[in-house]
Amino acid sequence: MAALMNEYWLISAPGDKTPQNTFEKLNHATKNGNDKLSENFKFSIPDLKVGTLDVLVGLSDDLNKIDTYTESIVRKTASTLEDVLETSSKGNLSENLRIGGDIPPQVYAQKFTWDLAKYPVKQPLRAIADVISKDVTHIEEELKTRYNKYNNLKGNLQQLERKSTGSLLTRNVADLVKKEDFVLDSEYLITLAVIVPKVLAEDWQKKYETITDKVVPRSSRVVYEDNEHQLCTVTLFRLIQDDFKNKCREHKFMVRDFVYNEEEIQAGKTELDKLNADKKKKFGPLVKWLKINFGEAFVAWMHIKALRVFVESVLRYGLPVNFQAMLVRPIKKNHKRLREVLNQLYGHLDSTALSGDKMSAMEIPGLNLTSSDYYPYVFYKITLDMLEPQRI
């Protein structure tokens, strides 16, 4: 089976007697013998209110911006879902990107039908565009709020987890020591936790008793070690602890700011458990919200595409409204040939698009196209692979 491209070309051409004839002519032209150039689908757009020329020209410019914005929210919702699911697999992500719970984006686009209940066609085009824009803005705002809360929770949890698994320089000492490692409830003595680089372990044993006076002899114990450091305890008189810390720093031994307190240790473990529980509690509802609102944003995006095709087709082909919108998915190896066939099929609609004199085409109000994207027919490129960079 020939490989299909990840992008679709949404095009429209004037009705040839009937819109159905236009679609059949495209199918016939793209067969190219036994070697197909593309898969083609009708893109059904209902009879919308045309309005005045001034309204169409102004709306064309606005729809371009709404289209770009809506696509960005579709992709942002998908990438957020990918992040929350903590997967980099295309397969795992695509399984969760569905419209209405079970329809893949490609299938929805290929079988697009206008949602008459959500966007009544009796409304002016401007009103429909405003409703879509408002809906998408609401999705973006709620996405920010929900994701920020979840991300802050996740960040706090990761910070605590790092303290339980990282280097001894940052790791939570409470996880590594026992009550019997410390002299407790003494008015005069205190036990400190000191991080000693392994390369200086002999130095520590030789020097710790005499770094300052009033250090308890033979009081140091190695209670934990990793690849690079040892965690040692040492007992000394409280009144010289500040001087002892300063002297340790000079010798490249680091005294950790830690006091053994069972209540605080238990509270730290409870906080970690609480954050883990909160993350699990919020995970399910957030994933569900992201799935639903990816679908909502995608539906909005396809309706904006439909509005753009309708407006540009009226501006290009005039009244009465008679055109067929079509979704074309190029066969990868034949996409250049497909472009040539489309130009042959529709070149008569606007000779300037093929002549190289594209500047005059650019002066048509409301089209908002660069010369590289201007063709004799209405054309928009749609990339439906949500893991690919955004293409505008």
TrEMBL record:
Quaternary assembly: V-ATPase is a heteromultimeric enzyme made up of two complexes: the ATP-hydrolytic V1 complex and the proton translocation V0 complex. The V1 complex consists of three catalytic AB heterodimers that form a heterohexamer, three peripheral stalks each consisting of EG heterodimers, one central rotor including subunits D and F, and the regulatory subunits C and H. The proton translocation complex V0 consists of the proton transport subunit a, a ring of proteolipid subunits c9c'', rotary subunit d, subunits e and f, and two accessory subunits.
Q: Name one GO molecular function term.
A: proton-transporting ATPase activity, rotational mechanism
This chain's source organism reads Lymnaea stagnalis (Great pond snail)
Q: Which InterPro entries match?
A: ATPase_V1-cplx_csu, Vac_ATP_synth_c_sf
Q: Does the keyword Ion transport apply?
A: yes
What is this protein's record name? V-type proton ATPase subunit C
Q: What family does this belong to?
A: Belongs to the V-ATPase C subunit family.
Q: What does this protein do?
A: Subunit of the V1 complex of vacuolar(H+)-ATPase (V-ATPase), a multisubunit enzyme composed of a peripheral complex (V1) that hydrolyzes ATP and a membrane integral complex (V0) that translocates protons. V-ATPase is responsible for acidifying and maintaining the pH of intracellular compartments and in some cell types, is targeted to the plasma membrane, where it is responsible for acidifying the extracellular environment. Subunit C is necessary for the assembly of the catalytic sector of the enzyme and is likely to have a specific function in its catalytic activity.
Q: Name one Pfam family in it.
A: V-ATPase_C
Q: Provide the leader sequence positions.
A: none
What GO cellular-component annotations does this UniProt entry give?
Answer: lysosomal membrane; vacuolar proton-transporting V-type ATPase, V1 domain
Name the UniProt key words of this record, in alphabetical order: Hydrogen ion transport, Ion transport, Transport
